[in-house]
Amino acid sequence: MANVLEDVGRRTLNDLDYVGSLNIQLWSTLRAMKSALPLVGNSYRWQATMQQMLQIGYEALPMVSLMAICTGFILAMQGAAELRRFGAMHYVIDLVAVGFTRELGPLLTAIAVSGRSGSAFAAEIGTMKVTEELDSLRVMALEPIEFVVAPKYLAALISIPCLTIISNSFGIVAGGLFMFFSTRLTPLLYFRYALESIALRDVITGLIKSVAFATIIAHVGCLEGFRVRGGPDSVGRSTTSAVVKSTFLVIVADAVFTAIFYITVRP
Amino acid sequence: MPIISIRDLVVEYDGRRVLDRLSLDVEPGETMVLLGGSGSGKSTLLRQIIGLERPKSGSVIVKGVDITSCSPAELKKVRHSIGVAFQSAALFNSLSVEDNVALPLREHTRLAPSIINLMVWMKLAVVGLADFRKLLPQALSGGMKKRGAVARALALDPEILVLDEPSAGLDPIVAAELDELILLLKQAFQMTVIVVTHEMPSAFRIADRIAMLRKGTFSSVGTKEEIRASQDPQVRHFLDRIPEDLGSATAVADHFEKYLHSQETNQ
Question: Chain B residue closest to A125 (CA)?
């Protein structure tokens, strides 16, 4: 029994330590973010940010689009199977449009980016640690947070909401295609109904979520890289850990945000 | 007045004492070689000198600033006067050799790009890499990477040059070339050089003074002639390549004999 309590206590302390480290890293990065901004910051840092934006956003575009199209079809088909029985096929439009803008668009994008870029952040920083590149930055009086993390975080903050908007659009388009083939509803009419069903609040809540997810993915990925100890095997472990932890935290954050939005906008 | 002064330095990892009350003065313009076997604490001492770790107690005073207790801003200022070439070279793999050397100049000076290019070319010419400046580090041999790291360490014309195991893993010819390079740099730039090594021919070629480390303490500090003539048993063990811990071989044999005996008894 004592061992179990000891184990629970140790794990709790480790988790608190992890959350504390994430907060410290987030705060330090926010303080260093100015250097990564265009015009007012360091031009080399902005170049690094743009490079990261290409990697996080542009290169993930085909994957995120395809995932959104597939999920749009799935949602429409599953919804239609039930709603058809009540003669309420037109509610499929609301289901897809609102479901994507509020929930599925941000979540799907975050999961895709977490797998692609969160792991890449951990691997890159972990390798830099193993090969003493982080130490060599420090001895050159350059802070790894400013040099490595700030461009990644800024790029994630810009790219992930953009990807989310694209994901929303593709998901809704997929719903429209389904409605056209199943009920011969014209695309023009479909988009009119879809736009009517989406409130501005839905889009904003989705984007707020995507900013929170970007923060989680960037910081968990980078922190896992900084926590690499030892050799290359540790880099592999940190990469896996980055994906698992960021996906878990994204879903927890999603639940929290959804609960907050549900409570605050309840009639 | 010494440019580096180490006083009663104690470093512990997880309660295990790695450096035990070390004191050492390094005079401006001298080449100090930290010589010692694996696990003697020489790399740990080096990390203290360049301010990458904080000790349990004691002080490391570089150019009049105690870097174990100074503010981050003061540490940054001190680091501008120290150039470090790590054992693994630690060149940034995503940057070409010239960009690696240009990095500290771009970050810490307001020089025009054309001047930076000229300075980079000069630094690379000194180490014999001017023709390879466009290559990425992975396209270089081990010796070339180390010379690239030296060029980067020289970028800001530091007063102190710190080299961690410059000839480790290199063939004798390339190692000798690096020794000559260190002598040339010292002569040309009048800089203080600290070299960590376990290669005796290299140490005796480049050193003005040698500090021999053994189990976290200095077993001997003196000029290379004094070290070579030393009759201290610990120094002689290292210089004459006599294994010290022969007792442990007997202990292994005893243990093995006891194990065999216990197996026979069990049968």
Answer: B92
